[in-house]
Task: inverse folding
């Protein structure tokens, strides 16, 4: 589904990613762990093509080199992302972007209702939304988009238990986690800081990122337990 | 000459004397205009019975500013200084040239130069001294306009001063919607529009006035307008100008003189290269509980834009808010936002917010992750910026505003 080779990313003159290699197979859901500032969000935004980034290396999606492709073309090909801090877009309604992604008005309303955002369709996108509302708004947009590879940047940060359960349910639905593994065709890459989303979404694989490099991969539960026990300092000791 | 009653003639004479003293009085804002450069254009064009009698270019120019055949409660059409069409359609709503109205209603002497001062500046003085043309629109008491009344002021001949004086009255309990489209002939290179508009909103009445300006790059525009709003009356003033215009300077004023009266302005403008635009909105809250809201949006596209706003609170319990946003789409030209608040007692609430910025890259990227191209994302943000909330505006007029904005979007990006 996704293959990232020797990816280096410079943002505002600073090297943030330093030779990232990553592979996600069809049907596979992975978590990306790492301390603040290690480059996790940068990796996700590089995959969807943040135009302010200077990039070397290659990104393949479904076998196609998308490294130089404009963001919207990547989205057309089946990529989707939820942001940790989505910007407010004044004057553009949540409904406008949902219609852009999916023409069916009735379904849009149904999905918004389900996410508790029925009254938000006519509101300016993300403007004055609370933390939980922002996360639900990102989720309802992904539900509309139905991407083949879902990139989720901390869907669990700042979210209360009830919202977390709903968000987990939606992620599982988009990723078709209830299907048998061999029938799953959607893939996911989830950034989580404390792993709380893993109560609801059971990933297949985990990666640890330190200082702009993926330094370790393994079983998600084991990784998170190690990190909880020894912190990321433990990871550093382990790799050196 | 108008055929006026003796009493009206006396008033007219006094006004002329006052005007004469102001013929050289420069306007407070905007670049000066040499009035001697202009002639009076066509004064005797023959009238028409419907818009199809106009040539194709003229019809298109009119359509672009919201003038149409269908779904109107009345029509007034003026080319240069000639009246081409004055049409009353709905019972209880009068539409006629000011010339006819002044002859018909002697009581108009109480309205003529009542809201705007004749000696405000050289433009008001010129208007009074040169026998203006213009329209009179009035909704009789408790009449509601089913459709908007439309008026169109069109400059056909180069070198013309179009001299307009309008009076609009919404009588007690009435609801009147007016759309005015201003346009100019394709080849009209150099012209001046002076437009005096006096609005009277009586007790419990609502008047919404939407003006779409589509002047050309050789036209100087100097409207002088004011509204007097009585108890529980509501005045909506909506303004759109998306085209390159040599210069526009106006500072319409709403006097809220009745208890709980309200004035609301929405202003949308684009300052293209070569345009000098200076537009303000002023409300004077003179009566207890009166309110005002002003929303302005300006796009800088290489031209000069002054956006002024002024709220003066002079009575108990009044409330006013002024919001002005600018979006710079070029590194040339400027947007100068000047909000002013004046309070002369304790118990009131006046506020303003102003912001000028550019289109944020992170917003474009975000919308691109929702599938929009960079161009579509930029257009969506600019469209969103210009789509001011037009609370209380009838749907038809709201659509005209949006249509005008939409039509010019591609030329801005």
Result:
């Amino acid at each position: 589904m996704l293959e990232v080779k020797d990816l280096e990313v410079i943002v505002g003159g600073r090297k943030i990613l330093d030779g990232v290699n990553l592979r996600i197979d069809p049907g596979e859901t992975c978590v990306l762990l790492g301390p603040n500032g290690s480059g996790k969000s940068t990796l996700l935004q590089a995959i969807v093509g943040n135009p302010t980034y200077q990039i070397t290396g290659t990104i393949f999606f479904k076998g196609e080199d998308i490294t130089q492709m404009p963001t919207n073309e990547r989205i057309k090909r089946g990529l989707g992302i939820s942001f940790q801090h989505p910007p407010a877009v004044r004057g553009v309604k949540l409904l406008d972007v949902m219609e852009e992604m999916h023409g069916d008005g009735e379904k849009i309303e149904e999905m918004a209702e389900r996410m508790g955002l029925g009254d938000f369709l006519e509101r300016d996108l993300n403007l004055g939304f609370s933390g939980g509302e922002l996360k639900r708004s990102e989720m309802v947009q992904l539900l509309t988009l139905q991407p083949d590879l879902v990139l989720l940047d901390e869907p669990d940060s700042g979210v209360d238990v009830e919202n977390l359960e709903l968000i987990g349910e939606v992620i599982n639905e988009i990723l078709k986690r209830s299907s048998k593994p061999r029938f799953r065709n959607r893939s996911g890459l989830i950034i989580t800081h404390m792993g709380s989303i893993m109560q609801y979404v059971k990933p297949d694989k985990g990666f640890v990122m330190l200082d702009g490099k993926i330094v370790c991969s393994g079983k998600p539960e084991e990784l998170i337990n190690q990190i909880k026990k020894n912190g990321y300092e433990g990871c550093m000791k382990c790799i050196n | 000459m108008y055929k006026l009653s003796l009493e009206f003639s006396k008033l007219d004479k006094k006004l002329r004397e006052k005007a004469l003293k102001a013929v050289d009085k420069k306007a407070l804002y905007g670049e000066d205009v040499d009035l001697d450069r202009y002639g009076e254009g066509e004064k005797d064009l023959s009238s028409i019975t419907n818009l199809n009698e106009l040539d194709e270019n003229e019809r298109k120019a009119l359509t672009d500013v919201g003038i149409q055949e269908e779904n109107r409660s009345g029509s007034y059409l003026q080319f240069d200084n000639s009246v081409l069409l004055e049409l009353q359609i709905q019972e209880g709503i009068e539409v006629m040239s000011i010339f006819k109205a002044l002859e018909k209603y002697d009581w108009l002497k109480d309205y003529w130069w009542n809201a705007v001062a004749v000696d405000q500046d050289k433009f008001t003085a010129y208007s009074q001294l040169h026998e203006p043309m213009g329209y009179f629109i009035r909704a009789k008491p408790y009449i509601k306009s089913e459709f908007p009344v439309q008026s169109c002021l069109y400059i056909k001949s180069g070198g013309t001063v179009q001299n307009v004086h309008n009076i609009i009255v919404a009588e007690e309990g009435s609801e009147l919607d007016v759309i005015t489209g201003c346009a100019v002939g394709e080849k009209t290179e150099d012209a001046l529009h002076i437009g005096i508009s006096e609005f009277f909103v009586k007790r419990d009445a609502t008047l919404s006035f939407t003006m779409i300006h589509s002047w050309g790059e050789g036209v100087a525009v100097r409207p002088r307008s004011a509204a007097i709003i009585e108890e529980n009356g509501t005045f909506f003033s909506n303004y759109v100008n998306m085209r390159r215009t040599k210069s526009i300077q106006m500072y319409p004023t709403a006097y809220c003189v009745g208890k709980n009266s309200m004035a609301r302005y929405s202003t949308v403008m684009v300052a293209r290269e070569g345009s000098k635009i200076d537009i303000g909105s002023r409300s004077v809250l003179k009566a207890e509980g009166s309110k005002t809201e002003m929303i302005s949006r300006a796009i800088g596209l290489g031209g000069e834009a002054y956006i002024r706003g002024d709220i003066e609170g002079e009575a108990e319990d009044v409330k006013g808010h002024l919001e002005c946003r600018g979006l710079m789409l070029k590194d040339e030209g400027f947007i100068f936002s000047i909000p002013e608040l004046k309070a002369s007692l304790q118990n009131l609430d006046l506020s303003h917010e102003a912001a000028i910025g550019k289109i944020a890259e992170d917003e474009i990227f975000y919308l691109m992750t929702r599938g929009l191209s960079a161009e579509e994302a930029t257009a969506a943000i600019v469209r969103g910026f210009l789509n001011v909330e037009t609370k209380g505006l009838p749907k038809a007029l709201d659509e005209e505003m949006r249509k005008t904005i939409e039509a010019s979007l591609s030329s801005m990006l």
